[in-house]
Amino acid sequence: MKSFSLQFKLNLIITLLLLGLLLTWAVSVIKNAREDVLAEVESTTDLVMHLLDAEIAHYMTDFAWLAHKQDGQINIFRLEELTNIRHLKVDFFDMRGHLRESNRSTRIVHTGEDPPKWFVSLLDISSVLNEPKRKHIVLNGRAIGELVITPDPSFELREIWDDTSGLLAIVGLFGLSVLLFVYWTVRATFKPVKQIIHGLNQIERGEYQSRLPGFEQIELSEISDKFNSMASTLEQSIRNNHRLTQQIIHLQEEERKKLARDLHDEIGQYLTAVHVDASALVAAKKLSIARESAQAIAQITRQMMVTIQDILARLRPRVLDELGLSLALAELIHHWRDRNRGIMVVNAISNHLSPPDEAIAVTVYRILQECLTNISKHASATRVTIEVNETPQGLYLMIADDGRGFDPRVQSRGYGLAGMQERVEGLMGTMQISSALGQGTRIEVRFQTIQGFQEAAK
Amino acid sequence: MTVKVVLVDDHSVVRSGLRRLLESHKGIEIVAEAETGEAAYQVYGEIVPDVMLMDISMPGMGGLEAAKRILQRYPQARIVIFFDA
User: Fold this and answer.
1) Half-sphere exposure at residue A260, Cβ-oriented, CA atoms within 13 angstroms
2) Chain-chain contact of A272 with B14 (C-beta, under 8 angstroms)
3) Residues of A in contact with B24 (CB under 8 A)
4) DSSP class of residue A76?
5) Rounded to whole angstroms, what are the CA distances from A319 to A15, A110, A333, A361, B79?
6) At what angle do helices A287-315 and B12-23 cross, to 10 degrees?
7) How far apart are CA A12 and CA A4, in angstroms?
8) Distances from the Cα of A2 to the Cα of A5, A9, A22, A33, angstroms
9) Mean pLDDT, chain A cut into blocks of 10 residues (458 residues total)
10) CA of A242: how far to CAs of A77, A198, A234, A428, B82, in Å?
11) A336-362: b (≥16 Cβ within 10 Å) or e
């Protein structure tokens, strides 16, 4: 049954049920008909027997009948006159076995078609009724013959067949129309299923604009609604995916451009200078001039080392791998403080920060780096407060300054902060920027752990 | 007879290196330095050197543009343009 469709199964079950019902009904009709025929034939036989008994008793007291001869024969029972005994053949045989009287010739014989053989054999009456009833007739102590009564159910059978076949036809027609109605209804009911499957196939092929129409059936219309909202969510998220991919490619290109610019601007000039000085060194004819060039080379390469360290630190903060987040942040702040001596830094960084996700550690580091760069470049702050702590619920980072601030509506889309915000959101974190002109800037970042999410949901 | 040279580059380390290199040759004299293309154009007009040595990439007007302008104004000018790494 598993490989058949629900539609087929429903049709099959209903057809079988209806057939079973029809069959049961037919069996009971036939059983009743059989009983009716038997009872009728039985009672008629009894009745005729009684009548004939009465006739015999009459003859034994009144002998007038002896004068009543017909063609030299004595008609004792006048069986020719028993015309309306439809279910019985009544014969009288004399002692020599000759048929003397019978109702055969005058009996009403029905016309028209006989019931079909299968119907007759289904009723199975012949086996019960084939036995004729016999009665020896004794008159004045002398046996004169034998009366044989043979039941003939054909008349009754015909009647029953007439009744039953009509009924069978009506019921059959009714059953057929019920089945047709059921097929039609099931087919109409299952039409939406085909549409739903078609829609699902479209989604599978990536045609996310596929939508289902509204269905009349409440359950199906609910499915249709859910399908449509699922499809539009899918469409939306695919679109978001495309957008994010483009954004990532864009960011990657930006990074590369920045790196190329850094390498060109900061390393290129030094390399050119070293090359020029080395050439001067080669061409130098006086020791003092050679020394000057050598000194210049030493100085330039020293600066190159610092610059390359800066670039590498921007590319990948190695301290993070070597020292862990707490020390890396402390190191970052320490260096920044060295370069920005006029600004007071108050920091509260937990000692053993260990975010479960390495990407979170990098992001926290980068956000602090970006914020400190922004503060030293733009904020004109006198005081910076930094707080980083970690609880079982999550990690919290806050950087606040008392600088000139900005209007977040205008500037929050600036490359640095917007990029940070995307990074944080990409890691399921939240980033809140509060700032106003002249009010300083406060940036808060939260990364919740699974436990934190569960507790927040309560 | 000495060749009068003007150095144009936005990086001082490069300029001082070039100065040391060129001054080690007899007959070359660095008469001026400029940090931008605009300054180079102005300095050329003031000094009219024999040769102008100019970095191609500088902030603002680049070396190429500066050279074009100078040649428009002083078609006899001799300008050497170089690329750094």
Assistant:
1) 6
2) yes
3) 280, 283-286, 289
4) S
5) 79, 117, 13, 12, 48
6) 160
7) 10
8) 8, 9, 28, 43
9) 74 88 86 81 80 76 62 64 70 81 68 73 69 76 79 75 82 88 85 88 89 84 90 90 87 87 85 92 88 93 89 81 90 91 91 86 91 88 94 92 84 66 87 89 90 78
10) 111, 26, 12, 19, 44
11) beeeeeebebebebbeebebeeeebbb
Distance between CA atoms of residues A256 and A253, nearest Å: 5
pTM for the model? 0.49
**What does the angle CA B65 – CA B66 – CA B67 come to, to the nearest 5 degrees?**
90
ipTM of the complex: 0.82
DSSP A180-198: HHHHHHHHHHHHHHHHHHH
Question: CB contact, 8 Å: A370 with chain B?
Answer: no
Instruction: Round the CA-based radius of gyration of chain A to a whole number and report it.
Output: 57
Angle (deg, nearest 10), helices B37-47 and B63-73: 30
Residues A14/A182, Cβ–Cβ less than 8 Å: yes
Dihedral, CA of residue A321, residue A323, residue A329 and residue A334, to nearest 10: -130
B-chain CB neighbours of A292 within 8 Å are: 20
Nearest residue to A376 via CA among A330, A328, A337, A319: A337
**Kind of pairing between the strands at B3-8 and B51-55:** parallel
The CA distance from A60 to A70, in Å, is: 20
Which of B21, B84, B85 is the closest to A283 by Cβ? B21
Residue length of chain A: 458
What is chain B's length? 85
- A399 — alpha (psi -120 to 50), left (phi > 0) or beta? beta
